[in-house]
Prior knowledge:
- This protein is of the alpha/beta class.
- The protein has 12 helices and 9 strands.
- It has helices at residues 8-22, 113-120, 141-145, 149-164, 183-192, 198-204, 212-219, 226-233, 257-261, 284-290, 317-324, 337-354, and strands at 40-48, 57-65, 86-87, 96-102, 125-129, 171-181, 243-247, 267-272, 296-301.
- The protein has a 9-stranded mixed β-sheet, with helices on both faces.
- Helix 4 crosses helix 5 (183-192).
- The longest helix is centred in the C-terminal third of the chain and has 18 residues, at 337-354.
- The chain is globular.
- Residues 1-34 have low confidence and may be disordered.
Amino acid sequence: MIAQTPSRALTTRLCRTAAFLAVTALLVLPAGAGDALPFGPGAAKITIEDARADRPLEGDIWYPTATPDQYAIADKSKVWQMAPADPDGAPAEGVFPLVVVSHGMYGNTLNQAWLGSALARRGFVVAMVNHPGTSTFLRDPDQTRQLWDRPIDLSRLISFLTEESVYKDRIDRERIYAAGHSLGGFTVMLLAGAEFEPDRYERVCSGENLPVACQVLTGWSIAKTDGDRIEMATSRKDPRLTKVISLDLGGTPVLSRESLGAIDIPVLVLGSGRADMLDQEAESRALAAALPDDKVRHVELADTGHFDFMGVCKPEGFAILEEHEPGDEIVCIKGHAERIEQHRLILSEVLAFLHP
């Protein structure tokens, strides 16, 4: 569910890092940056225009362009490498699958920019929004408590892109996918039909030595009122979704096992073999075990850590953070050459799943 352990000190440090991520522009795409690929990585800002004036959504979209060699790699951060992008480049002709991506706790749309750029260059439209209440600069407590709105954000994003946006004629409505990291993994599982179970939540999130997800959810006062319990337990399944990808999710302990067993679309569950942030037995392994055997592919990448699903650090990034933001350097552990290799493995699994 989160990109950090739940201790207050580390949470504070990593929240500062999330803010750092938000102002460093587009994060790195190491996988395929120098390869001969069929498309260029178009990138643009999007604003969702719909009836939810109480919850405005903004984010980024990545899409294929017809100029694979036309992109720039900005150098605006001392810590992070940047993703190849052709800002506002002309979209390529054709119809492409759509992947909506959900960021982790207090993250933002830039965290998986590397994946958006990589997939755009291979023929996908990829869109992300900053979730109000649980993103870097949007932390209103009431919006945080209304966690049920996160999967609704993605449904709104799908509706906007396929019905209203200038990209609507470029999207294949029969191939709509979702991917999410950490809390984003929890979010896309709700979109796929998993359901929050209030009684289970109360049972597993009481006592001592609580799962990380429980510490976060109880800290956010999730499902404390009857009205909130009803909202959290309401199914947020979007029938337009045809495949879903969980990237080291957190939140499995509070999901209904009955709802997980009824998931009717393919699910790729990627777990972090290093288990440096989340208990794999309670999270990705438990999720995979609860899903129908014929719908799930579970891969625990041996040397992948929780932050490897985010961007690549420059070689000097760890030392810079260690000196100037002590504690934040955790996001750059094995963050350069090792992370580049992890991105190649992650991307390979994602592409094999989306195009078997």
